[in-house]
Please model this.
Amino acid sequence: MPAERDAPVPARPDVRIRPIGAGDEAALKAINQRLSDRSVYLRFFALDRRGADEHAHHLADGSPGHQALVAECAGRVVGVASYEVIRSGEAEMAFLLDDAVHGRGIGTLLLEQLAAVAREAGIHRLRADTLAENAAMLRVFTDSGFEQTHRFDSGVVELMLDTSYSARTLDRMAERERQAEDKSLRPLFSPAAVAVIGAGRTPGGIGHEVLRTLAGGGYCGELYAVNPRADRIAEVAAYPSIRAVPGPVDLAVIAVPAAQVSQVLTECGHKGVAGAVILTSGFSELGANGLQSEILAIARRHSIRLIGPNCLGIVNTAPDVALNATFADVTPLPGSLAIAAQSGAVGIAVLDHASRIGLGISEFVSLGNKVDVSGNDLLLHWWNDPRTDVIALYLESFGNPVKFGRLARLVGRTKPVLVVKGGRSTGGRRAGASHTAAASTPDTAVDALFEQSGVLRMDTLEELVETARVLAGRPLPKGHRLAVIGNAGGAGVLAADAAGWLGLEVPELSTATQQELTAATGAVGAGNPVDLGAAASPETLERALRVVLDSGEADSVLVCYAATRAGSVSETYAAIGAASADSEVPILVTCLGAPNAEPRVPLANGSHLPVFPFPESAVRALAHAVRYAAWRSRPQGVVPTLAGIDAEGARTVVRRFLEHRPEGGWLGPEQAEQLLQCAGIPVVHSIRASDREQARTAAGRVGYPVVVKTAAETIVHKTDVGGVRVGLADERAVEAAYDEIAAATGDRRVIVQAMAPGSTEMVVGMVRDALFGPIVMAGSGGVLTDLMADRRWRGLPLTDLDAAEMVRSLRCAPLLAGYRGGEPADEAAVLDVLHRVAWLAETLPEIAELDINPLTAAPSGAVAIDAKLHITPAGPPHDWYARHLR
Model:
């Protein structure tokens, strides 16, 4: 016991949190013995170590009614968090930490995980009684970000904590993760010593080439080679194993055969290596999932952060690091673009193109199989990195897309995130019995996620690099107004055309500005584009650029310069740079006819203006910058509080349906109507009928004129099969319509509804994606649903701004606004329906598909005419934000 009591906790341990086990009782009692008297008093309100030991036995006995988690550092239990159920939805929580780990954030991490476990168990509130003098524990509660209330009574603070996620909770969790990621990834990106394991003696091998790249690139730390058959390789000292290396090693670059990686990684763990880049292939990409799981387990056991396997390596261009641990034949320039690529080949392409056009990078990561470090980890790492202005990602898959979206939204408020996402094919289009599911593709959820998160989605790698040039180190455009200036009239016209296609304005300059331009430059055309004529000198171009910048009539400027024998490219660049030096407006340059010209215009402050070969590519990159600037400047938006909702009633509808249909299925019209009404969505009253007499009676009840439509669950397009008759004014018309619909569909079930007033028809729906969760759709409805393909998608949570952007960006939006003198529809009512559909998706995980088509939007409101809901048995709720217990 004394040895256990005095053993120090390592300064750099991973914290492992896991459910308590029966074998942990002794470890908890050991903590009780190590605690100071004051710590025992603050936890148990008395100096009672025997009572503390009894409580340890209670926590470890596995009896129902309570749950406990333990925290381990370097294999030793150093803390415990628990809750005891008081009543339905409420429990009492308690925490105990070893004195040796106070102040390391372990208590906050335990609270975060305990709340996640409680939430999954249906516990909505956690209560704690804490002595008012226990400032440290009270600070843990306050700093956690969870919503909470306090009451003070006789020296005790009674606290009630809400286990649900609020925006503040998630922001605090993200900040804690950012700090932890930054610390854990430091040995990878800023290592004081690197060992290349598997560095061969012969040039051409991966290990040998990485070693040469590191040595030749000026790496600032200690560099070692590991090879049992050499003393030196590429002028670097070599050792037979990582354990034989004489000093500490932060980063191991591993290039041994796949079968040897586990042993090498274990040796790295015993050596105390904190980070590893595994270049070796032959893991999950070839089906060797067991081997890949093995190396992850070894890394976890030894607190090693991993990049790869099957990757190209990493780069950090910081002058005091100069780390190029790749085998790419590219030497990246220092700069402010951070890049992560899931594909090594793509990574090489991006690095090569960036180098050729003079775009510098801060850090580069080839993710490979993403066994440990992922895109989410790198977003957190680069979030506050002072050397990084722009983040670029090439991704082929998402591990946790919902969390990615939230992190990207946070990061995007200070620096843009550019993504090329592989796999845009529509080959995986869903087969569904609703318009929403049928319209959803594997790419739909990705677009929705990026739109809400402010992520700029690029179609090509070239577009990604070119957009990064506009955003890296340059001011953001404050609006959509573009001025085009140059000596090439045709190029100016092409730039203006591209701007129009991409949503930018090329407004005519004011009369005063045109007059000033003409007087100062003799411009051929001064309206915008500004054509200075083919013989314009560098001085003329400089004067024109200064006039336009001083006018305040442009939010960005594109200089279109055509090189001629009469002019000098270098002198022209100097003139552009002189006029642009202090500008707060982004300026781009197109240089035509000089393929060997520098790809950048230098400025006096050491920065550069990007030079593009064609005006269209420049305008396209600028349009992305304008879109990002607009997103960043807009408010965050809020999820509105909805009145008139009946959550318990909605759950009852679903529960009763699944009692009769355990396998799930489509709700009947009456059940669908009832569920929408529980959400507060107005619904046209529907009556089901199975024969002519029932149809006639139903029509009398709802009132003429009426609509009769098929109730067959599997028919999506009712009009295509003759399944709808409208404007039926009397009994004879209803009977005839019934016979025709039954004959056309082969199904005698119909629905009878009152005719809705004339209005714009929309579709509103939801489909639950297995990876992304629920995504909500709005679009043109009725017979136009598939013809127009006019749809917008968003994920949850759906803010007021998200919903408004969905509706206002539709092609049918002018109809809602009152096209050509028509009376405007009630847009607020449409947005309200969208939010209520989102509420249903969040409240009822059993809803797999929901389709309201049409939703009529009229001046008097929005009403659901036809609704389809597919219900499936729901598994346990997925917590997208909680860290996984292990």
